[in-house]
Amino acid sequence: MLDEGRRRAARGTDVVVGYAECHGRSHTEAMLDGLEVLDRARREYRDRTYPELDLEAVLRRRPQVVLIDELAHSNVPGSGNAKRWQDVEELLADGIDVVATLNIQHVESVKDVVERVTRVPQHETVPDDVVRRAGQIELVDMPPEALRRRMAHGNIYPPEKIDAALANYFRQGNLTALRELALLWTADRVDEALKKYRSEHGIGGVWETRERVVVALTGGPEGETLIRRAARIAARSARGELLAIHVARSDGLAGGGASHSALARQRRLVESLGGSYHSVVGVDVPTALVEFARAENATQLVLGTSRRGRLERFLTGRGIGETTVALSDGIDVHMVTHERAGRGRLLPSRRRTLPTSRLVAGPVAGLVLPVLLTLVLDRFRGTLNLTSEALLFLVTVVGVACIGGVVSALIAALTASLLLNYWFIPPIGEFTFSDPDNMLALGVFALVAGTVAAAVDRSLRLSRRAAAATAEAETLSSLAGDVVRGDQAIPALLARIRETFGMESADLVEQPEDDSAATQVPVGSDLFLVLRGRALPSSERRVLAAFAAHVSAAVERARLAEAAAEIEPVKAADRMRTALLAAVSHDLRTPLAAGWAAVGSLRSPDVHFTDEERDELLATADESMARLGRLIDNLLDMSRLQAGALTLNLRATMLEEVLPSALDSLSPDAPPPVVHGLEEIPPVFADPPLLERVIANLIGNAARFAPSGHPVLVTASALAGRVELRVVDRGPGLPPTDRERIFEPFQRLGDTDNTTGVGLGLALARGLTEAMDGTLTPEDTPGGGLTMVLSLPFAETVAAQPRNGRGTHGTECLRRTQEDQASSALDTADPFQEG
Question: What is the mean pLDDT of residues 788-802?
């Protein structure tokens, strides 16, 4: 950013520096020489002063270009805008160009990906639309190895923060993933610009700037073969993209026996291979395929070879594949053979779409209605001409088609043709023609009647299928909203089934019933869904099977929840009983016995002690009682955590104020730790006495394992709205399999000295930390050892967040309910373990 500002200033552009965060780096500060730097605004918040961009000063100065660092920064509460990118938008609206900086982890669309990779939540983000509107985006790229070398050489962080940075956020894997995200996001931005340019200039041809492979799916059995073939083609390119498309005929014709279940499976396969699935509607399949490929700037199109047999190809001519090749014009078309090639289409089975009553009434109407019309027209002979009479017979044929379908319409057309010839075409009363025009008229009538009847019949079939499919889709969609209804999921599903299918009752039974009139569907291995009422046709049984599957899942969930509810109290009680028995029987009795022995010796009349011996015994008694008091305090705190009765007084707390008290509570025999980097750390949101207990437990635990000559190191850093306090030891470390076990109750992993405590230190530390909305995680120390990372939110970050709509930030609104506190402090890790 500064380099760009210097380059523009050298060309005569009016450039000022609105905000540049150099972090004390001399090389960066040197680049400010020669540039006009505006003074920063000073904002007061919670008894501290924070520097911010002075938006009003920039607007008054009105430069051509202003340089503004850290676009994602959150302004101090009380500023005109909550975010710095909103300040930038005001400058842009006022006609001032802005050159700004942004890290990839602060782009809103990749926030969740970054959090999964780095395990650091991103509280400051910029909407993608704001970044994409930039006139120019420049990616500043650096290999992870080079960045880590710069950091190790002290060019980025001071020496005391280097180890923590390299071991945490700036791991090589993290940096590699962030680099890939930045490259992909920038490449997509370039791709968008290319699409916009092609659209604005009306360019329809394919520009092979990026390999895009489109695979056409019909829902047939060859789909998976085509998808895998297309995926291999796309994989040959470094940034190849796979797109799958299914063209749904807008006239409702399936075309080749499309199977919705097969398409669903193929869609999942495409997505598992990293591709995207698209469905478009079109009358002409080849045209729709080519238009989609061109719109996506695709370079290759993959189709399956035709399933039509030789005779069908001879009769119907050129197929979809050949037509697509002819239309492709610059797009490579791959015709992939498969096992169904040339073996004919898999046509869907034709099911009866009309009820029995209409199938009977249709042919009867085809015979009776033309006869009745003939009798009526005979009474009005001479008033209508032959054309009008033929049209009335045509209307009758169409009506019969609506009643009974195409077969009934053909019967009606034949009957009407014969009656029209015999009664109304000269010579009347004979099946002969004296006028060739009459013969032509009768032939056209028969053709038109048959064609119209077939079209009407097909239209009715398609509309009925569409209505059935719509009803089925709506039913399944509503089912998805009724699946989870708390503890009443199963009764709600049964009621829904009864209402959906119009049954008298719907029940779950353990044994199938002998009632033949009832519809019975197995649900799992030992239950049956029994519906009483009308008989269900096969089309509705398919939907019923979906309901049964959901009922089975709900039953299984209910059983698991019931089993877990029954087992969990027993497990918790057993763990606590065993732990308390072990603590009381040994660890609590040890300091008590030592104290009793010292006091008993002092009270003994048979022994005379010197002053030094008396002082030593008193010190032993005092130390034993102090140890016993600490153990009891820990047990009481743990019991309060479990009961959800721990009262929190969360407020802005400085680490440098809490640390001395925590160090004073340590054993006098423990070597003092080395402390770095606490002076410039912002206040955290915590309960000071509880935070003191947490830090004391962490340092005391680390001191037990730190080798002689390597004192415990305590450092702190601020990152992404949180403060991370690191307690680093150079001890033997801990294998990854034991990372969570150290937080279980009454455990001292790797500790053979049973006189040093009951193993509550780390367990209590994690419980108290999570009660304060923090996290406590173990990490490897670079070079050997274990690092405990305590993470707590900034005080101003928490204060800026709404609190259940109360608008206050006092102690009462920060307390959790007992259920929330017990869940966060105990369920994530059992709180009684120390390592």
Answer: 73
Q: Are residues 217 and 80 in the same domain?
A: no
Q: What does the alpha-carbon distance between residue 538 and residue 448 come to, in Å, rounded to a whole number?
A: 36
Cis peptide before 427 (omega within 30 of 0): yes
Who contacts 211 (Cβ-Cβ below 8 Å, separation ≥6)? 234, 236, 237, 239, 240, 241, 299, 300
Report field, pTM of the whole predicted structure over 0.70: no
pLDDT, one tens digit per residue, over 5-40 is 999 999 999 999 999 998 888 888 999 999 999 999
Would residue 178 count as lying in a domain? yes
How many CA atoms lie less than 13 Å away from 522 in the CB half-sphere?
3
pLDDT category of residue 457 using cuts at 50, 70 and 90:
low
| DSSP-derived 3-state class of residue 779 | strand
What does residue 812 show for φ and ψ, rounded to 5 degrees?
-65, -40
At residue 395, what is the residue type?
V
* CATH number of the domain to which 56 belongs: 3.40.50.300
What is the C-alpha separation between 613 and 606, in angstroms, rounded?
Answer: 15
Q: Would you say residue 25 lies in a domain?
A: yes
Rounded distance, CA 431 to CA 357, Å? 34
Based on the domain organization, do 286 and 419 belong to the same domain?
Answer: no
Residues 361 and 293 reside in one and the same domain: no
For residue 637, count other CB atoms closer than 10 A to its CB. Answer: 18
Taking the mean position of all CA atoms in its chain, how far away is CA 100?
A: 30
pLDDT tens track for 479-513: 555 554 444 467 777 876 776 666 778 888 887 77
CA dist., res. 269 & res. 217, Å (int): 12
Q: What is the pLDDT of residue 520?
A: 85
Report the C-alpha gap between 185 and 192 in whole angstroms. Answer: 11
The structural domain count of the chain equals 4
> Do 283 and 249 touch, CB atoms closer than 8 A?
yes
Q: Which two tokens stand for residue 603?
A: 């009270």
Q: What's the confidence (pLDDT) of residue 18?
A: 95
Give per-residue burial for 69-104: e unless 16+ CB within 10 Å, then b: bbbbbbbbeebeeebbbebbeebeeeebebbbbbbb
Tokens for 262?
């097969």
Last residue of a domain, one of 437, 462, 487: 462
What separation in angstroms does the CA of 792 have from each of 654, 688, 726? Answer: 11, 12, 12
540-564 in b/e form (b: 16+ CB < 10 A) is: beebbeebbebbbbbbeeeeeeeee
Let me know if residue 29 belongs to a domain. yes
Model confidence at 590: pLDDT above 90: no
Mark whether 328 and 437 lie in a shared domain.
no
Tell me phi and psi for residue 281, to 5 degrees. Answer: -115, 135
Q: Give the pLDDT of residue 66.
A: 97
Does an H or E element contain 638, and which? helix 611-643
83 φ, ψ (degrees, to nearest 5) = -125, 150
CATH number, domain at 294? 3.40.50.620
For residue 631, give the nearest of 724, 505, 758 by alpha carbon.
758
pLDDT of residue 8: 94
Of the candidates 552, 544, 463, the residue with the CA atom closest to the CA atom of residue 502: 544
Structural domain of residue 374, as residue ranges?
A: 356-462
Are 193 and 242 in the same domain?
Answer: no
Answer with the residue of higher pLDDT: 32 or 680. 32
> Are 691 and 653 contacting, i.e. CB atoms less than 8 angstroms apart?
yes
Rounded Cα distance between 615 and 604, Å, is 15
292 and 429 fall within a common domain:
no
The residue among 412, 415, 399 whose CA lies nearest residue 456 is 399
Q: Are residues 365 and 252 in the same domain?
A: no
Q: Are residues 811 and 763 in the same domain?
A: yes
Q: How many CA atoms lie within 13 A of 281 on its CB side?
A: 4
